[in-house]
Amino acid sequence: MEAVTSQLANGVVVGTTIALTALGLTLIFGIMHIVNLAHGEFYALGAYFTWVAYSLLNNFWVSAAIGIVATAIIGAALLMMFYDKLTGAGPLRWALLTLGFGYVLRELMQLVFGTDFKLVAPPLEGTIPWAGGVYRIAVTVAGLLLILALALFLKKSRYGVLIRAIANNRDAAALVGVSTKTIYTWVALISAGLAGAAGAFMLPVTSAYPTMGLEIMIMAFVVVVVGGMGNIQGALIASLLAGLAQSLLTLIVEPTAATIIVLVAFMLVLVVRREGLQKLW
Amino acid sequence: MVNALSKSWSMAISAALLPVLPLVLPDYYLYLATELLIWALFALSLDLLLGYTGLPSFGHAIFFGIPAYAVGIILTAGYPLIVALLAAVVAASLTGLILGYLATRTGGIGYIIVTLLASFAVFLTAFSWTNLTGGENGLYISRAGTLASLSTQAAYAIVAVSTALIFLGSRWLVRSNYGLLLIGIKTNETRAQAMGYNTQLYKFQITIVSAMIAGIAGVLYALLARSLSAELVGPELSTEVVIWVLLGGAQTLLGPMLGAALFILIKQALNTVRAYPIFLGLLFIVVVVWTPSGLLKLPERLWKSFRRKNETEA
């Protein structure tokens, strides 16, 4: 029984991580109409930057903050690099461009950091019976708070309103004087920062390794599609479902099989309901 | 005009080269040419979907790899070639049906993501189902009864004739009214629907045609290379073939074929370089940012900018 509850707790942590990553993905998709295939590498960058900062400063939370900001800046710089050349180029070119970024980033990380696991001790010690480590719970709470903050930002702040205005009708927003490029840069910063945050938070749990981004990205894409593309609430619920399903399935089958089962199940959902799970909530 | 000229020139050169190659090339390079033709055929099959119908499949390797595996598995189990080929046809049809159905259920960006995920799922399955596919070690087909048991020239001839026939067939298809309708779906699906065409049906049909051609390429590859690995169904090959199509020029049939050959030659030259994926990634970026309409249309673009320059001066 304890195995089940600890896997449940693990599922919530994994789900939160997927949610943070997926929100960045769905944000950039919903607003800039970009399928960002380098998004997983931003997640890995977040973990590696945090590791580097930690080995210099020895303070996890400060290092995580540095990792998140560094990832946000590099991610946004990459995304906006060819923005002018690719305006109106359609989703296909963006997908291939970001795929190219992904190849370069993954290989660079492997060259710089090697293929071994970069470990960091969890900043919070101790375990709670039935639920697992204290750090995991703290991460879940921090992740959910971040998501809440994002939702409030989009709903209430001036920038949030501008972002939603552009998502809603780009031309009309531009017509009344909203600078699309500035707003897009902000969106890219937030999107990459969210992935970086997920990577930073997971560093003490999974440690950092070169293929970590690829693994999370697949799940993030699944939940973005199933949650209804560009739909934040949908992505959030789908993330938790995916995390829980994957963690619980590892009790019965091998991890790879668990991933395959979740992938196929979510694709079936998509076939049955074209709009994903969107209208169920 | 320049475009038509450059196209017909490339075609004339290709048509002239095809029968001459086995006479002049040593065995090693002829084998390479045979392989390039197979990849070219694979690229052509994607052009029908991506270039002509506007279905941006990021899972096209599924159509290539699954029939290849079907042939490999049945041959390794000791059945004759004809049974293996039948199995490949069944496998190609089934994958075509499933992904064709997916194509009608999702559109645009959703299609990109779903096909990519499908390719990833198939890759994971092929990689971990060791009993069936050999998993990490790959699957080796014994030489007897494959293209490898023939002379290099004979293997080349079989592949070259199949490729040429399929190319001509596809050219006929895209120039027919059917092909025009496909382009119509790509340009404005709503209008095609308003004119009374069942666009979903056409997307479904062309997916199956494309799957069959990709499957033929896969089977030829299995019979020639005789070693299969999970990468043949995976997302890396799936996305690379999209780059081949763009590099050569989508919606030209010949362009993607030349793009495939060019890309693979570049790749082979870089293969020994350290940190090769960095160059691969940079190659992707270069193709996307600087050759938006493909190499085959490059002469036309140069000509246009040349004329514009002259006109402004005059």
Describe the secondary-structure layout:
The complex is a heterodimer of chains A (281) and B (314).
Chain A: H1 2-32, H2 39-57, H3 60-81, H4 83-86, H5 91-113, E1 127-128, E2 132-133, H6 134-156, H7 158-168, H8 170-175, H9 180-206, H10 212-226, H11 232-249, H12 255-272
Chain B: H1 2-24, H2 27-52, H3 61-76, H4 81-105, H5 108-128, H6 130-133, E1 139-140, H7 152-175, H8 177-187, H9 189-194, H10 199-225, E2 227-228, H11 235-248, H12 254-270, H13 276-290, H14 298-313
Antiparallel strand pairs in B: 1-2
Helix pairs in contact in B: 2-7, 2-10, 2-11, 2-12, 3-4, 3-10, 4-10, 11-12
The main sheet of chain B orders its strands as: 1-2
What sequence of helices (H) and strands (E) makes up the elements of chain A?
A: HHHHHEEHHHHHHH
Mean pLDDT across the residues of chain B is: 85
Order of helices and strands of chain B: HHHHHHEHHHHEHHHH
Distance between the termini of chain B: 22 Å
Total domain count of chain B: 1
Runs of chain A in which pLDDT lies below 50 for 5 or more consecutive residues are none
SSE-based structural type of chain B: mainly alpha
The level-1 CATH class of chain A: Mainly Alpha
In total, the number of domains of chain A comes to: 1
Structural class based on helices, strands and sheet pairing of chain A: mainly alpha
Principal-axis shape of chain A equals: globular
The CATH topology label of chain A is: ABC transporter involved in vitamin B12 uptake, BtuC
- What is the helical fraction of chain A, as a range of percent? over 70%
Number of strands of chain B: 2
Mind describing the biggest β-sheet of chain B? 2 strands, antiparallel
So what's the oligomer here? heterodimer
CATH class of chain B: Mainly Alpha
| Most extensive interface, chain pair and sizes | A-B, 41 and 40 residues
How many distinct beta strands of chain A?
Answer: 2
